[in-house]
Amino acid sequence: MGVVVAIDAGTTGVRALAVDEGGHPQGSSYREFTQHYPRPGWVEHDPEEIWAAVETTLGELLAGLDQPLAALGIANQRETVVAWDRRSGRARHRAIVWQDRRTAARCDRLREAGHLPLVRERTGLVLDPYFSASKLEWLLTEGGVEAAPDLAVGTVDSWLLWKLTGVHATDPSNASRTLLFDIGRMEWSGELCDLFGVPPAALPTVVPSSGRVGRWRGIPVSGMAGDQQAALFGQACFEPGMAKNTYGTGSFVLLNTGHQRPPDVDGLLSTVAWALPGQDPTYALEGAVFVTGAAVSWLRDGLGIIDDVAEVGPLAAGVRDTEGVYLVPAFTGLGSPWWDPWARGTVVGLTRGAGRGHLARAAVEAMAYQTRDVVDAMAAGGHRLTVMRADGGASVLDLLLQLQADQLRVPVARPVVRETTALGAAWLAGLAEGMWSSTAELSESWELDAEFAPRAPASVADRRHAGWLRAVDRSRRWASES
């Protein structure tokens, strides 16, 4: 049947990946795009540049393939919003990125006005600028985007689907991240659209995560999912209780909770994992950590203590421990389980003897500590993990995965195919087109690369995590609206 190609439009770049019937990569192409920071706490992307990166990577990948293309799938950075004109197909404003905090004060006011219970009940989310609705509201009020009949708004998947096929649609995994989607009824909420002033007519149609939506150059576009849900799918976490963590720009722990929406857990999110045709939706409990791998980029771009992100592993492994140094990378606030948009990045415990290696190790340890914070919140809500499957760029670091196993006290498994976000999008598209018959068949394709068991004494791990919590406390509520 040939190959399925996944478009993985992430936060810093676009990857096109071809996957064969055995679930093995058959080629890829990658392009970064520009990050815009017009003000402190603001993060924007040019939607046209994202689309150009898609065109380039698809062109490069397809030029090197000698197999027929069976389908296209899309995975995308979630919560980032795009507004465009249906007639011209041109973006009306830069995309406002999930990391953007410009609407923090607005979310505070909505919370103070008593709207959180409605939001929590309908969406499973919290009132935070991380999500899409307040960004869309800003575009329509302060961003100069007019709510005209030809206006289309959506997340990056719907923007790319429009450019590929002319169809304005999204899937439930992305819709469930907007603060506008009722995850129980599986439809847009009129109450929440009214609350944020978003015209429902501008929103995309919600379609299953797996199923033909349109065609690009005759090739069916048949799968869509937000990047973290796509990674859960690509990690073959098809059974309730299975969990994954993606160590990317941020880190996202998702736990499959089955076909019933999980009860709300303090500090965590309830979300739609995916929706397959003819089935009830699959739900997940999620902890969203805003900055993990991005902290390594900051060591390179902000401090200049490394020239390439690949240096951080050997540099961190070159010291026995951080000697009490903690880095809390709250550059865009803190996500789960704290939900503090006013937190800011903090380094504590510095002495004259601290050096590059200690800062590098502190950045790596921060990834493990933030993940433990999320898993501890899951356990407090009655959800205990038995194994964690790890993916994303930083999962190549054996040091990180060993630290993670020590902190979680459960094994951490790394798959052979680490581009699980793209793999999940490919699997969703291939399922729709008959390349694979079932999720059971897909499970057989998942291959283990390495597994890390807890090694450090629990008392040592707990003591170091307690120091981390003290550092987090110093980072919280640091900034203000003024």
Structure description:
Helix 9 runs antiparallel to helix 11 and helix 11 packs parallel to helix 12. The protein has a domain of about 220 residues: 2-Layer Sandwich (Nucleotidyltransferase, domain 5). With about 475 residues, it is α+β, with helices and mostly antiparallel strands. The N and C termini lie far apart (about 60 Å). The chain has a seven-stranded mixed sheet with strand order 17-18-16-15-21-22-23. The protein has a six-stranded mixed sheet with strand order 3-2-1-5-14-13, sandwiched between helices. A two-stranded antiparallel sheet has the order 4-7. The protein is about 35% helix and about 25% strand.
CATH superfamily label of the domain at 3-227: ATPase, nucleotide binding domain
> How many helices in DSSP terms?
15
**Class by helix and strand content?**
alpha+beta
Quick one: biggest sheet?
7 strands, mixed
Topology:
Layout: E1 3-9, E2 13-19, E3 25-32, E4 44-45, H1 47-63, E5 69-76, E6 81-85, E7 95-96, H2 104-112, H3 116-123, H4 132-141, E8 151-155, H5 156-165, E9 169-170, H6 172-175, E10 181-182, E11 187-188, H7 190-196, E12 205-206, E13 210-216, E14 219-226, H8 227-234, E15 243-247, E16 251-258, E17 269-274, E18 282-289, H9 293-303, H10 312-317, E19 326-328, E20 346-348, H11 356-380, E21 388-391, H12 398-408, E22 412-415, H13 420-432, H14 439-443, E23 448-452, H15 458-475
Parallel strand pairs: 1-5, 5-14, 9-12, 15-21, 21-22
Antiparallel strand pairs: 1-2, 2-3, 4-7, 6-8, 10-11, 13-14, 15-16, 16-18, 17-18, 19-20, 22-23
Helix pairs in contact: 8-13, 9-11, 11-12
